[in-house]
Design brief:
Elements (H helix, E strand, L loop, with lengths): L6 E5 L7 E9 L9 E3 L2 H9 L2 E7 L31 H27 L6 H25 L8 H19 L4 H13 L9 H4 L7 H8 L1 H9 L7 H8 L21 H16 L10 H10 L7 H11 L7 E4 L3 E7 L9 E7 L4 E9 L9 E4 L9 H9 L2
Antiparallel strand pairs: 1-4, 2-3, 2-4, 5-6, 5-9, 6-7, 7-8
Helix pairs in contact: 2-3, 2-4, 3-4, 3-5, 4-5, 4-10, 4-12, 5-9, 8-9, 9-10, 10-11
Length: 403
């Protein structure tokens, strides 16, 4: 049985003989280095140092032998990007702040689209501030922003998608133990990754039917438009531009717009392709119904390793959980509930807010149920879509979850 991947970013000083290297994370210069494979000897590691390699992504599950020096994983940061102390808080304590951050991010997206249409250059600072806000919230309690990102408004996909992708990318990068400076660059790039769509004609962008070949070609150009816009923003990190430029590339080379494959796609590009696809699948669009998070995760796994990196898909699932907070689930007692709190030890047994009776198709008195409790034998049958039961999830959240 193959051991699950254990991806870690290590400095060259932490790399030990026998470790399996997936890719270079940071290096001096632009030297082409064949990185995937075992660093079997100290001499090999020394050569990597001489070539300017500073950090690498390794899969500890493939280590050939136990390293002589125990390498501790990077500790979780205890301070915000601004240097202030960050404290863990409860879901309830963070929810209001998370909602404020989300609404501000949507407003920022709306202004950015207006600026692009008017030919004005984008100001980088508000996007960096927004990314910092996401980071702080995620490290205080990631469940709050994850929950808010599930509250989708009809016909708001263009505004909400990039915000959701940025939140998911922040959570994903936290799972990967990246430092906060890097997470901010990734979150900022994710916020801006679809900015070029504003230059695609509305008749194509919002067409309810199937696109013609010519229309589909124009739709694909939104990636090129995004890259061109971002390259004009002074001070924007190359990493931020990269995630926007390659979010539709696939490992088998069948993505667009450049047809990159395998090692041509950066680690960050592989990550955002997973995140972008997940959010797109779960969203309600003018031309398709949204699917549940479970369905999206199954699609990601099914399309690995052809399109997506299976080790990274596994890390993404671990980051957000099998039933992400905010998911609507049907229970074995024929009631509906919202997932309120994840259970890292037993992902199938989260804390729920039960509020609806499927049999009588009516709302019931709200109750909180911890499926991990020995006092309950209730189980989750599966995730469901609110439309299947005529439930206005936005109204429910505002009246129940956000109050």
């Amino acid at each position: 049985m193959t051991a699950p991947a254990q991806l870690k970013v290590l400095s060259i000083a932490e790399l030990q003989p026998g470790m399996y290297v997936l890719s270079v994370h940071k290096q001096k210069g632009n030297v082409e280095i064949k990185t995937q494979g075992w660093a079997r000897t100290a001499a090999v590691i020394e050569q990597l140092k001489k070539k300017g390699v500073l950090e690498l992504v390794v899969d500890l599950s493939k280590t050939l032998e136990q390293p002589k020096v125990e390498v501790a994983p990077p500790a979780e940061p205890v301070a915000t990007a601004s240097g202030k102390t960050r404290e863990k808080v409860s879901f309830e304590q963070e929810l209001g702040q998370a909602n404020t951050l989300y609404q501000q991010a949507k407003g920022l997206q709306k202004k950015a689209f207006a600026d692009i249409q008017a030919g004005r250059e984008l100001n980088l600072q508000p996007f960096q501030d927004c990314a910092t806000g996401f980071i702080d919230s995620v490290f205080r309690n990631q469940d709050a922003l994850l929950c808010i990102s599930r509250i989708r408004e009809k016909d708001a996909y263009l505004l909400e998608h990039s915000v959701n992708v940025s939140i998911l990318m922040t959570i994903f990068a936290k799972q990967m133990k990246f430092d906060e400076e890097l997470i901010q660059q990734l979150a900022t790039g994710a916020l801006l990754h679809d900015i070029g769509k504003i230059l695609v004609p509305d008749s194509i962008l919002n067409k309810p039917g199937k696109l013609t070949a010519e229309e589909f070609g124009e739709m694909r150009r939104h990636v090129v438009y995004s890259k061109e816009i971002l390259e004009k923003i002074p001070g924007l990190s190359p990493i931020s531009i990269d995630v926007a430029a390659v979010h539709h590339e696939r490992l088998d080379g069948k993505g667009y717009p450049y047809g990159l494959a395998d090692q041509q796609i950066s680690l960050y590009g592989r990550m955002i392709s997973i995140v972008d696809t997940y959010d797109a699948i779960t969203a309600q669009r003018c031309y398709k119904e949204g699917q549940t998070g479970i369905s999206a995760l199954k699609i990601l796994r099914r399309e690995s390793p052809q399109s997506f990196d299976p080790a990274l898909v596994a890390q993404f699932i671990k980051a957000i959980g099998i039933h992400p907070v905010g998911t609507l689930v049907k229970l074995s007692n024929q009631k509906l509930a919202i997932v309120l709190k994840a259970n890292e030890q037993d992902p199938l047994r989260p804390v729920l807010k039960v509020f609806y009776n499927c049999k009588f198709r009516r709302y019931i008195e709200i109750s909180i149920v911890d499926l991990a409790s020995s006092k309950t034998d209730i189980e989750i049958e599966g995730a469901v879509m609110p439309e299947d039961f005529g439930i206005d999830l936005i109204r429910f959240f505002r009246q129940s979850v956000l109050e």
